[in-house]
């Protein structure tokens, strides 16, 4: 055998061994993901209902809130609606009783905006209270014109009301003795439509250290079906789940198999995605700081950023199912004794 053939054989053997080790590592990760409290996840996910999602969304995307443009009167009313919900549910704010607002000064905005606010609530963990996961959605939209209101039912009333339902499900679990081991932070970001301003501000001024932030699950448009899935609406796009943490990706897949059986579509997760969705919603500011993320998204549709994005077009049973996927994924993240890590940064 020539030296060249020997060298090629050695390289092939090394590559084969490395592939085997990687495959075994992935299988070990998959095997380690076990929902030991399936019945509890099912029990509390039942509190997430199409009816309640619909009631919240019809209010939040109504003309009363004038399209929720950042810094405007309508968005401030919408912020108060969210704050009042948490007060009524007795879900506290980490900023102090009934405060809830993380105020963002005028100097942080590039537009002519006096001020705006993120809305933050949380449920404290019992075992690892200093470790948190953040579930987020933006509350702002496009405002109104002389003749029409941009109601933003899908963008992003759908994500907003999903968080409200997830928060009350975790609150109910805690009341009944099944509270999370880690703390859960619910953030409604302002200014997403203005270069992700609210989340940019938060990562510069975090309420909880980013080094203790285990993951960000970000929800932006999950109430509709895009043109690519008209024949198969039982789907959700996941973006970023495998970018920073191997385990987060497989936790998400296991949660889906156990509880929702949606088609998890990853084609918008490609690093070559021409639309660059990975960098276009609030999760990106967490990912840029090394926090593992999942971005939940239904894709764009013909009513995107138009006055025709209205509540009667929302698929509420599908919104419920997608919300339950996020809830079950969050349940594992806050209750597993072993936190996920951003192993792909190492």
From TrEMBL:
CDD domains: M28_like_PA. GO terms for biological process: proteolysis. InterPro entries: M28_fam, Peptidase_M28. GO terms for molecular function: metalloexopeptidase activity. It comes from the Bacteria. Pfam families: Peptidase_M28. Residues 118-327 form the Peptidase M28 domain. Transmembrane segments: none annotated. This is Peptidase M28-like protein.
């Amino acid at each position: 055998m020539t030296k060249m053939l020997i060298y090629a054989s050695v390289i092939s053997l090394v590559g084969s061994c490395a592939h085997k080790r990687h495959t075994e590592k992935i299988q070990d990760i998959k095997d380690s993901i076990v929902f030991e409290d399936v019945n509890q996840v099912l029990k509390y996910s039942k509190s997430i209902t199409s009816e309640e999602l619909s009631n919240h969304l019809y209010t939040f995307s109504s003309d009363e809130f004038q399209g929720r443009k950042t810094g405007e009167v309508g968005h401030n009313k919408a912020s108060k609606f969210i704050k009042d919900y948490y007060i009524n549910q007795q879900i506290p704010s980490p900023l102090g009783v009934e405060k809830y607002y993380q105020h963002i000064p005028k100097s942080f905005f590039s537009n002519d905006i006096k001020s705006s606010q993120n809305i933050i609530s949380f449920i404290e963990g019992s075992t690892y209270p200093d470790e948190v996961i953040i579930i987020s959605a933006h509350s702002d939209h496009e405002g109104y014109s002389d003749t029409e209101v941009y109601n933003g039912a899908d963008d992003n009333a759908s994500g907003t009301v999903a968080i409200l339902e997830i928060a009350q499900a975790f609150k109910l679990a805690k009341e009944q003795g099944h509270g999370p081991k880690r703390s859960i932070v619910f953030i409604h970001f302002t200014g997403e439509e203005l270069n992700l301003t609210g989340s940019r501000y938060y990562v510069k001024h975090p309420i909880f250290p980013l080094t203790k932030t285990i993951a960000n699950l970000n929800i932006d448009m999950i109430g509709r079906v895009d043109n690519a899935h008209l024949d198969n609406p039982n789907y959700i796009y996941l973006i970023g789940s495998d970018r920073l943490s191997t385990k987060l990706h497989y936790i998400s897949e296991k949660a889906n198999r156990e509880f929702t059986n949606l088609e998890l579509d990853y084609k918008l997760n490609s690093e070559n995605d021409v639309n660059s969705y990975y960098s276009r919603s609030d999760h990106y500011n967490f990912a840029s700081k090394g926090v593992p993320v999942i971005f939940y998204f239904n894709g764009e549709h013909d009513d995107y950023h138009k006055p025709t994005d209205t509540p009667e077009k929302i698929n509420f049973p599908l919104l419920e199912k997608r919300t339950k996927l996020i809830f079950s994924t969050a349940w594992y993240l806050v209750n597993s004794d072993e936190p996920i890590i951003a192993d792909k940064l190492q």
